[in-house]
Amino acid sequence: MNRKDKQAGKLSSRNPIINTIYTADPSAHVWEDGKVYIYASHDMDPARGCDLMDRYHVFSSADMVNWQDEGEILRSEDVSWGRPEGGFMWAPDCAYKNGTYYFYYPHPSGSAWNDTWKIGVATSKKPASGFVDQGYVPGLGGFALIDPCVLVDEDNRAYMYYGGGSRCEGGELNDDMLSIKGNMLEMEGLEDFHEAAWVFKREGLYYLTYADNLEGNNRMRYATSDKPLGPWTYRGIFLEPTGCSTTHGSVAEFNGQWYLFYHNQEISGEGNLRSVCIDYLYFNEDGTIQTVVQTKEGVLPAGDEPSQTLDFQIYEAAACSMGGGASLEVDEQENRFVSGLQSAGSYCEFEHIAGEEGGRAALLIQYATEDRLAKLHLTVNGSDYSLLNALSTSSLSEFCGEARITVPLEPGDRNTIRLSGGNGEVRVARMLVGLLDS
Ligand code: FUB
How confident is the prediction for the chain on average, in pLDDT? Predict the structure, then answer.
């Protein structure tokens, strides 16, 4: 089946834009292929504060409305110098220079996580796959070393910013993009800085945006400068509380329109299970930023139609093997589906999934549920991919729900994908599998 992946005729992006897994701290960039990419952190479900955050995913779009999960690019297990217990993969960023993508991420190097933060760097020749860790930027530390952000300026010089605990620092990166030229400097002129630094440039003016310290309800503020490392002039608040205890955002221009990427807790209602959103960002004539209006509609299509056409192979649930309390049923509309996944030990297993040469595969699991927030536990070839959200389709016979995630498959046709229950009753009708370029 050749299905052009227009996501169910969406007229706008809707917010949040990613529903199947929890994503936070979005860093958005428009790269040379004309697409916009979001590098997000991943709130693992269930959460334990921010301790278990891990497994960075990248999302891409050619039009701001249809978003493709490009899959996982790095997990704590891939980081040889990292904290032995894993987790703590917090807000990342990505930069592109001289043909290489540099993925920067904060991660502790020891069990005493709060005293051992480092900024790791993984590199790839591709924007959303193939990243290999290169170690951490040497010589940094001494305070909350989190939330790195990198600006590559028009003259190809690159600057790194980071900070938490009320202190923001910036400095120039060497040409290798892996080390700092000279010393990091405290960024002067910011008011009430908390964390989440993001720097972008517009019409020759540098903007540094950040989260403030408003108790339990951080807002986003910003400052401007005519130099990349300040001093900065404080300009005000441009994002009011989202309802989530943390706030973290990035700003990018796509096809002449500016956007704010941020997170809220709309799906989960929990501050550590967050979801990425997009809304329009407007400038006044004098370069100041208007308060961003947070919407449920999100943004309208911009730019080209999605160019990527995936060939989806359909695997009917009717052909699954099942265990525990799971069984195959047929309803009055002649939908055939697996039910009973919610009872302990129940599962359905899609076998002989074709991975061809092996590599990334987009999974679309079609389901129906009446529950507001049911979950499916996904296992691919025995590896745990944790909980996927199954959002209400209003009725148990409306199989319009689609859980979407990209996972790696082995070469050949011996891949096995297992779904078991989390909370809530979810009926699974089929799974579509589309192979992505690796
Ligand atoms: O996501 C973990 C931390 O929460 C980030 O590093 C902060 O910016 C806040 O969003």
Answer: 95
pLDDT at 253 over 60: yes
pLDDT at res. 404 = 97
- Size (the chain), residues: 438
Tell how strand 167-173 and strand 180-186 pair up: antiparallel
Task: Give 360's strand partners.
Answer: 408
- Which of 248, 276, 277 maximizes ligand 1 atoms within 8 Å of its Cβ, making it the mutation to test the pocket? 248
Domains detected in the chain:
13-280 (2.115.10.20), 310-435 (2.60.120.260)
Ligand 1 atom, smallest distance to 43 CA: 1
Q: Which residue minimizes the CA distance to atom 4 of ligand 1?
A: 246
Among the listed residues 25, 45, 133, 169, the single catalytic one is: 45
pLDDT of residue 213: 97
Q: Which residues line ligand 1 (CB under 6 A)?
A: 24-25, 41, 50, 90-91, 146-147, 195-196, 246, 248
192 is catalytic: no
Looking at 69, 195, 212, 279, which residue is catalytic? 195
Measured in Å, residue 364 CA sits from the centre of ligand 1 at: 29
Could you tell me if 377 and 420 are in contact, meaning their C-beta atoms sit under 8 angstroms apart?
Answer: yes
The residues pairing with 263 across neighbouring beta strands, listed in sequence order, are: 276
The per-residue pLDDT for range 87-136, each reduced to its tens digit, is 999 999 999 999 999 999 999 999 999 999 999 999 999 999 999 999 99
Is 364:312 a contact under the CB 8 Å cutoff? Answer: yes
Q: Could you confirm whether 45 is annotated as catalytic?
A: yes
Per-residue model confidence (pLDDT) at position 2? 52
Distance CA 358, CA 78 (A): 20
Q: How far is CA 152 from the centre of its chain?
A: 21
Q: Is 78 helix (H, G, I), strand (E, B) or coil?
A: helix
Quick one: what percent of the chain has pLDDT higher than 90? 92
Name the β-bridge partners of 150: 160
Whose C-alpha lies nearest to ligand 1, atom 2?
90
Sign of the four-CA dihedral 283, 285, 288, 290: negative
- The model's pLDDT over 189-241, given as tens digits with 9 standing for 90+, comes to 999 999 999 999 999 999 999 999 999 999 999 999 999 999 999 999 999 99
